[in-house]
Specification:
The complex is a heterodimer of chains A (240) and B (415).
Chain A: E1 6-11, H1 22-34, E2 39-44, E3 56-59, H2 64-77, H3 79-85, E4 89-93, H4 95-98, E5 103-106, E6 109-112, E7 119-136, E8 145-157, E9 162-169, E10 177-182, E11 185-188, H5 194-197, H6 199-210, H7 221-236
Chain B: H1 3-21, H2 28-38, H3 42-47, E1 51-56, H4 61-72, E2 78-80, H5 88-98, E3 103-108, H6 113-120, E4 124-127, H7 141-153, E5 159-163, H8 167-173, E6 188-192, E7 211-214, E8 217-220, E9 232-235, E10 238-240, E11 246-248, H9 255-270, H10 276-283, E12 295-298, E13 301-307, H11 311-320, E14 326-329, E15 356-359, H12 363-372, E16 378-379, H13 383-389, E17 393-399, H14 401-410
Helix pairs in contact in B: 1-2, 1-5, 2-5, 4-9, 4-10, 6-7, 7-8, 9-10
The chains are: A alpha/beta (240), B alpha/beta (415).
């Protein structure tokens, strides 16, 4: 860690916070504090400079205009690139996932992304809206992903990125794979407060940030019940 | 009225009555749907000869419509869609059912405002607010503001009553040529009802720059868009009119939010020439609106129903609710939107220290949210279980759309 406190930066809540994205910052902070870490959460608006010394950077979802504006300001700022070079963890959700890649499609145009993840996104044939589920890359050692997706884009992965999960329900990147990761960068189409349904994913990000091999388990009764309920709901629907 | 419209109107009324008799809702949608099938121009025919006010926005439109209809009734009979059926079918049904009236006050779903302006040729349109709501299918906030703006630009003769506190509304209400808000176009009347939710208006809809706020003021850092001076404001349990006269507003509806809705209603009524002095007493007669705010005694508990559909309306519900045991109920069926992620846009901290119970199809989503929010709660399976779990006295119920309707059905469809 960079300092004695775990620093979490929520990038541009004024632009990229359409679907309860605050939840991911709240969940990470709470789970870290429950393990005895001191935590600072910084909300950095798009007219402010991005600090480069934080441990975890969160980028949320947004509509086309704010997504394009967010990418443009992050490229001009350069802080996220410096932080990643220093080993920071980045978690991107939906629009925030797309803009980590080489390019994305918004307002009818192709935009340049941050080129931090080897992915590129395009407009899909239809909007993907609904439950999303998948089996996560075995190397990450996590239980299945569960979430809700709402996006018009489709994402291709290059050789430098691995899929986060194999889709078992929903669309994700292209109907087969969902999300991507490389090193300590991870993105998903499971939008909004994705970590609410995936506490083990939250703990993975915390382990990456703190260097801890293991974190003490937490009481997750309600998250477990929510996961079971959503998995049952998905199982009850026939895949189109 | 042309013969075809007369037939359509009569069939529409009959279908609505049949639907009500069959116990399938209040009939306001099915009646209008059949009427519009027979004559697509029916809404326009039914609107002709009436002075009409339309009320639209993300939140508060059902209540504001009810209050505005009460205020305008100082002048004569008012047709209104008081059951919240706010699409063209609902308007058709409401006007057909009311028969001939000199006035109509209609609540309009924000997606249909352009279409309903075309059909009804209103005297005045009230624009309340625009915020995130059911984003799994609704339009983006900025896109909605753009649609409103285009529709209003096509009707420069329509008078507008608009919320000065919402940058999206201010931008939508002003034609492009006069977007310097220091110059108010003559046909716009601004009101300020207090706005708690700001998270959908940090980016200027005109130029994309950041919007700054200080106290109640807001301004764009990149263009002339800024908060206009409101002519109608809320002040200390009362409303100030454009002449500076203050009227005490005594309502049976709870919360500061509803005093704000009353101010809007008075501004709408003033566009028809109703003096606040004559309208204010009529506002006090409104007790509940389509079950909202209704109080029902059940097993020694006084149950009050509050509807909260999206983050902005949850903040308002916390303002209205008393410090008392509170039941929260969340569903995610079609009318609610299938996505529950907005729960993390709501800060539930105001509920700390109250006995909190949760229920509904998606109670577990809420449970995870409250856990992260450090709000202790108890999960119950049914409404009855919730009633038994609290001591005699008040029980506040805050629920989203279908959860609200479920509980309302348990309480025998209270109005």
């Amino acid at each position: 860690m960079s300092t004695e406190a775990l620093r979490i930066v929520w990038i541009y809540p004024d632009l990229l916070s359409t679907y309860g994205d605050r939840g991911n910052a709240l969940i990470l902070a709470r789970r870290a504090r429950q393990r005895g870490f001191r935590v600072e959460v910084l909300e950095v608006r798009s007219d402010q400079q991005l600090p480069t010394v934080a441990d975890i950077y969160l980028i949320g979802g947004g509509e086309d205009g704010p997504q394009a504006l967010g990418a443009q300001r992050l490229l001009a700022d350069g802080g996220l690139h410096r932080a990643v070079a220093q080993g920071a963890v980045v978690f991107g959700v939906c629009a925030g996932y797309q803009l980590l890649g080489a390019s994305f499609f918004a307002k009818g145009t192709q935009y340049r992304g941050l080129e931090l993840l080897d992915i590129s996104s395009d407009r899909g044939p239809s909007r993907a809206v609904g439950e999303l589920a998948g089996d996560i890359d075995a190397r990450l050692g996590l239980p299945p992903l569960t979430g809700f997706e709402n996006h018009g884009g489709r994402t291709r992965l290059g050789p430098g990125a691995a899929p986060l999960a194999r889709v078992t329900h929903g669309v994700g990147n292209d109907g087969a794979t969902e999300g991507a990761w490389r090193g300590k960068l991870l993105g998903t189409y499971s939008h909004g407060p994705a970590l609410a349904r995936n506490p083990a994913l939250a703990d993975l990000l915390l382990r990456w940030a703190t260097g801890a091999h293991q974190l003490p388990p937490l009481e997750d009764t309600w998250a477990d019940r929510l996961r079971a309920e959503r998995q049952a709901a998905v199982a009850a629907t026939v895949r189109p | 009225m042309p013969l075809r419209a007369k037939v359509a109107s009569s069939v529409s009324r009959t279908a609505a009555a049949l639907s009500r008799a069959a116990g399938r809702g209040d009939g306001s949608v099915i009646g209008g749907w059949i009427g519009l099938k027979i004559d697509p121009e029916l809404l326009a025919h039914l609107s002709a000869g009436r002075a009409i006010a339309l009320v639209s926005g993300t939140n508060g439109k059902t209540t504001t419509t009810r209050l505005a209809a009460a205020a305008v009734s100082a002048l004569g009979k008012v047709a209104t869609n008081s059951f919240g059926a706010n699409m063209p079918t609902g308007h058709t049904s409401a006007l057909a059912k009311a028969g001939s009236t000199p006035y109509a006050v209609l609540e309009v779903d924000e997606h249909y405002l352009a279409q309903v302006i075309e059909a009804t040729d209103p005297h005045v349109v009230a624009l309340l607010n625009l915020s995130r709501d059911q984003l799994d299918r609704a339009k983006e906030v900025a896109m909605m503001a753009q649609l409103w703006r285009a529709a209003l630009a096509r009707h420069p003769d329509v008078r507008i009553v608009a919320n000065a506190d919402d940058p999206m509304v201010v931008w939508a209400a002003t034609p492009p040529a006069t977007h310097d808000q220091r110059i108010t176009p003559p046909h716009v009347t601004w009101f300020s009802a207090g706005q708690r939710w700001h998270d959908d208006s940090w980016v200027c809809p005109e130029c994309g720059s950041t919007i700054q706020r200080s106290g109640e003021q807001w301004w764009c850092t990149g263009c002339p868009l800024r908060r206009p001076d409101p002519q109608w404001t809320v002040d200390d349990e009362g409303v100030l009119d454009p002449t500076g006269a203050w009227y005490k507003v005594k309502l049976q509806l709870p919360g500061k939010v509803n005093v704000g809705n009353a101010a809007t209603a008075l501004a709408v009524a003033a566009e028809f020439g109703v003096r606040p002095f004559d309208a204010v007493p009529r506002l006090a007669d409104v007790t509940s609106v389509a079950g909202r705010y209704a109080q029902v005694v059940r097993d020694g508990r006084t149950v009050r129903l509050l509807l909260a559909k999206n983050p902005a309306s949850w903040l308002e519900a916390f303002d209205m609710a008393d410090e008392a045991p509170t039941l929260l109920s969340i569903n995610a069926r079609d009318p609610d939107g299938l996505d529950t992620s907005w729960l993390f846009d709501v800060d539930f901290a105001p509920l700390r220290g109250r006995q909190v119970l949760i229920t509904g199809d998606r109670a577990y989503d809420l449970a995870v949210r409250l856990d992260v929010n450090d709000v202790p709660f108890q999960h119950v399976r049914t409404f009855d279980e919730a009633v038994r779990a609290v001591p005699p006295g008040r029980l506040e119920v805050i629920a989203n759309y279908t959860a609200f309707q479920d509980i309302r059905a348990e309480l025998d469809r209270v109005n």
